[in-house]
Design brief:
With about 100 residues, the chain is mainly α. The chain has a domain of about 50 residues. It contains four helices and no strands.
């Protein structure tokens, strides 16, 4: 019997403590509310994105003899740019709660 939905892979996680500027923390909290996601998830995804996109960092890693950090192997997926259309895209639940009337 085949499994329809595979088990979610468990990733090892470490805990850290950081200090952020108050304004950055407030914006992080708002962004987490907007995405309906935890701080851990948002920070993890932001770091994975910047590690993947920073070409000088990738070049520096290669010069150090480090091929790619594990975070660069698909933990963040990019959304393709939206296609041009004459209709408005459907808002997500977070977007509809935060929508500004026209």
């Amino acid at each position: 019997m085949s499994i329809v939905i595979p088990k979610q892979p468990k990733k090892e996680r470490d805990q850290i403590t950081i200090r952020l500027d108050r304004e950055v923390l407030q914006t992080l909290e708002q962004y987490c509310r907007y995405l309906e996601s935890s701080r851990d998830y948002v920070i993890n995804q932001c770091l994975a994105f910047i590690f993947r996109k920073d070409r000088p960092f990738s070049d520096w890693l290669a010069a150090q003899g480090i091929s790619e950090p594990p975070v660069m192997n698909g933990s963040v997926t990019e959304q393709p740019p939206p296609k041009a259309s004459n209709h408005k895209p459907k808002a997500t639940s977070a977007q509809s709660r935060l929508a500004i009337p026209e």
